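Troubleshooting entry. The earlier prediction with zinc ion gave an output that would not parse, so I re-checked the input for stray whitespace and re-submitted. Clean input:
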Amino acid sequence: MASNSKIASLRPRNVQKSYKLAFGAPAPQRSLLKKSSGVAKQSRGKKAMKFTPTDSLLFTTNGPRLGPGAWCSICRDGDDVVICTTCKVNSICTLCIEFNFEDPETENFECPACFIKRSPHKSYRWRLNSRGAGRENLPKVITTPLAIIAIHLQGMTDRGSVIVYHHLAEWLQGNLVLVDLTFNFDDPNNQFESNLDTMLESFETGDFKEWTRFLVVITTHSDPETGYLHIAPGHTASAPVDELFNFMFPERFHNILKRSPTNILSLLSCGALSNQPESREMIKQISSTNLFDKVLCFSQRNLQTAFTHKFLMDLALNQFVFDRMGITNTLRDHQALGAHTDIILFRPGIIQTFRWTHPGARPMGHDTSSSLQCPKCSRLNTISPKFLEMDSTRLRCSSSDCRWEETYCRPTHFNWCQNESPRNKEERGAWLYSEEKEGNNKSMDVA
Ligand SMILES: [Zn+2]
Ligand SMILES: [Zn+2]
Ligand SMILES: [Zn+2]
């Protein structure tokens, strides 16, 4: 028999490295400001985009510019539409409301959303023919120009932003632009600052000066110990998130972002970024700048970003196109993301953590392997859940010689999203949330 040490040095033949090697890893802290201050700025007059292996700036936009009336707000289709004279945003087609073009009142058309705000108890002058294509009672389709700005570490792909772009382009056409900006602050010749200048100029006075809404996605690794973000490929350097933020978002960028109160910042990095207290505090400060309505992070220690793509697609569609500002409606459709990670939402003055629960897979939000394999008899697929009451789920092994069981309770700081709880084990799952408010160090219950 081989000795233990010899066994340890042997790798069975069916062991190999997985495709995904690029988890966050420790990277020495390096000052980003110092590093880049020595870099010569490209002359401002030089507009040509430069593509180098280390960094790039790329704009993607396609299709016609849209004005008001691009879509019927109700059926989300169109043809002849009448624009609301009050909001000048909503427009309704001649199938959804039978307009009489000879009626002079058509020229003073007011959409249902505006009307109900002004006179909630009066009868509406126009007759609706259709329930509409959405879930909401007063649907909207907003086509105000939107920019998706994807800033990512050189060498890391940002497919998520590309997918979000294509998802929303259907609705926004040429009112949508995707800006792809890479960085590598370890390269003394890096062009990040001049690329950023070029981008900001395009929003200030250039082709995209009419753009008023922004989804910014920053993709990079984080150091699992400090939560600092990698500023160069190959785990060679990291910096605190606030330092990176201050560098990437100069005053000029602030002024552009201030055009809208509904921007989103998504920080696509492993969980250490929002889990490490120092780093979490910095994200709180970033959120308190009020430049973003939502700052999103994910708690998973080794985040598989592929799980976040569909969620961001729907969140962006709901928020920017359909004007549905809450996050919980979107979460409901994204249980697969919840099985992978909590979602941490930073808003000015408040941090919300959303955690998925499932009676079988994640009883009361507890991440346990017990539902797959009995901890006592080690059999597979013998565990069945039973929902006991509002606040607990029991897992029990069905093997007659085992009968292991354990009860999981709702964590005290968490409450059910939208007061929904799974009522029985057939239920698909639900979301819990906790809130941490400004001035409280501890999570608190919200009744
Ligand atoms: Zn319609
Ligand atoms: Zn209106
Ligand atoms: Zn068992």
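This one parsed fine. The two ends are 62 Å apart (CA to CA).
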